[in-house]
Amino acid sequence: MRMPDILETPRCLLRKPQPGDAVAAFAGYAGDPRVTRYLGWRPHASVADTRRQISYDLFRWLKGSGWTWMVLRRDTEELAGLVELVPLSGQPHRARMGYLLGAAHWGRGLMSEAAGAVLREAMAQPDVFRVDAVCDVDNGASARVLEKIGMQYEGVLRRYIVHPNVSDEPRDVRLYAAARP
């Protein structure tokens, strides 16, 4: 799978991360417990943590083992969040999408626009037949994003992921997917 470094939507510019994004990413979402509540990692304690994450994301780009796009608002050029796409190991026809959006940008439809662009690009790849995403059963906002971009609800995966900001035990998640006929 080959993914473009840049995707554009009417209100968003999605681009490959840059090392200089760490300060804005930490301030805008990576250090915010509201944003990381339903993620598999705790809020970053420092900009250094965010810098390490960006280095890892760039390494995955280099290897072709995952793609993270920083989501910037076109009107303000402000870093608003990110969308990632990771091919599933041993199953190159499948990929998993994830995303997050800084709290200052919630409720404006930006993530539906950004995630929709990534989903369309992934499904345009000749070797990709399925893209899925999971969200915590209590994360209604994320479920709405997945429904808005055309993913279909497939069911609940019981005790599937640990969301350490909610509980140290695995939690139930909703599974959504888009698939080619």
Gyration radius over CA: 15 Å
Q: Count of DSSP helices?
A: 5
Helix content: 25-40%
CATH H-level name... which superfamily?
Answer: Gcn5-related N-acetyltransferase (GNAT)
Q: What name does the CATH topology carry? A: Aminopeptidase
Oligomer: single chain
Per CATH, the class reads: Alpha Beta
Strand percentage:
25-35%
What structural category arises from helix and sheet content?
alpha+beta
Q: How far from one another are the termini?
A: 19 Å
Low-confidence regions: none
Tell me the overall shape.
globular
Number of domains: 1
Listing every helix as H and every strand as E from the N terminus to the C terminus, the arrangement reads EEHHHEEEHEHEE
Mean pLDDT across all amino acids: 96
Number of strands: 8
User: What does the main sheet amount to?
Assistant: 8 strands, mixed
Describe the overall structure.
With 181 residues, this protein is an alpha+beta fold. The chain has five helices and eight strands. The protein has a single domain (6-179), classed as Gcn5-related N-acetyltransferase (GNAT) (Aminopeptidase, 3-Layer(aba) Sandwich). Strand 7 and strand 8 form a beta hairpin. Strands 1-2-3-4-5-6-8-7 form an eight-stranded mixed β-sheet, sandwiched between helices.
Summed up, what is this model?
By secondary structure, this protein is α+β, with helices and mostly antiparallel strands. It contains 5 helices and 8 strands.
